[in-house]
Amino acid sequence: MKLKLFGVSLLAVTTLATATFGIAQAEPLGLPPVPIPADNPQTPEKIKLGDKLFHDQRFSSTGEVSCATCHEREKAFTDTPLSVSVGINNLTGIRNAPTVINSAYLHSQFWDGREPDLEGQSGQPFINAGLDDHRGSPFMVGEKQRAWLKKDLAEIDINTPVIVFSHSPLQKIYRGWNFWTEDAEQIQALLKPFKKVNVFYGHVHQIQYNQIGNISFHSAMATAWPWPYPESNAKDPSHLPKLTVQMNRADPFFERDATGWQYIDIHSGNAAMTFSLTDNSTRTVAFNTKTNRPEDTRYQNNRIPPQDHY
């Protein structure tokens, strides 16, 4: 997997306000002096460079997007009224852009407050591959790894339970956020002869599960970065497995909501997943031998309402 990252310079964030509002020379009325790191003193040259970097589109993979694309001067340095920020080729992120006005005074950065200062904030805004990956889907196992997998599986009896760990979901759910593996069908074909196959995958940061033929798919829970379901945020259609009972998020504005741990029981050769969720109900998804598929032991036939906004 190869991600094209777009890092935002600290100068690009901190000095836009100084260049525009003059707080390097005098503080805005009623505000205290701007906190400047002792090891990174402010200078006129840095202010000028920061303003240039803020508008430089060369940081994006296609030369189309800069910091100023989402932090528009005419909109108080936000991208309102968008609900999510838009990157190259109209790919979407998972949140919209907060204002950078007076951001040097803030004690926490981002909507969820996950970074304490601008220096921590500066490298993250475009790490989300959905904003700056010109292919739309960077996830592909590839010819070499498929050949390795085929060779490795050739030595295993088809009655042996197979467990596959993957960051990529090895199925096709939503391409815009990389909930997608381009060569998923080819991987599934290699696993098809085996009677019991379990795929554990990451990246999606939410409860997902599916059954395709003999293959059970289970997502891994995340301890950070809560991520909504595609249709509730990007408002785009997705191929989320109909089998999946979506998480009923207790508070989508709590930075630990929809995060937690999971415990996996694989003793029978089929997975039973117990999700321990922060400030939310425990969920158990286990293989049902009568229906031959993973199911939520409590909510499969009595579905809880999913999150429908973000």
What's the helix and strand layout?
Layout: H1 10-21, H2 44-54, H3 67-70, H4 118-121, H5 129-132, H6 143-153, E1 162-166, E2 172-174, E3 179-180, H7 184-191, E4 197-201, E5 209-212, E6 215-219, H8 230-233, E7 260-265, E8 272-277, E9 283-288, E10 293-296
Parallel strand pairs: 1-4, 4-6
Antiparallel strand pairs: 2-3, 5-6, 7-8, 8-9, 9-10
Helix pairs in contact: 1-2, 6-7
What is the residue-mean pLDDT, rounded to a whole number?
Answer: 80
Using the CA coordinates, give the radius of gyration: 23 Å
Structural class by secondary-structure content: alpha+beta
Overall geometry comes to elongated
Protein described:
It is a single chain. The protein has helices at residues 10-21, 44-54, 67-70, 118-121, 129-132, 143-153, 184-191, 230-233, and strands at 162-166, 172-174, 179-180, 197-201, 209-212, 215-219, 260-265, 272-277, 283-288, 293-296. Residues 1-25 and 129-137 have low confidence and may be disordered. The strands form three sheets. Strands 1-4-6-5 form a four-stranded mixed beta sheet, with no helix packed on it. It has a four-stranded antiparallel beta sheet with strand order 7-8-9-10, with no helix packed on it. A two-stranded antiparallel ribbon has the order 2-3. It folds into two domains: 10-132, Cytochrome Bc1 Complex, Chain D, domain 2 (Orthogonal Bundle), CATH 1.10.760.10; 143-296, Purple Acid Phosphatase, chain A, domain 2. It is elongated and about 70 Å long. With 310 residues, the protein is an alpha+beta fold. It has eight helices and ten strands.
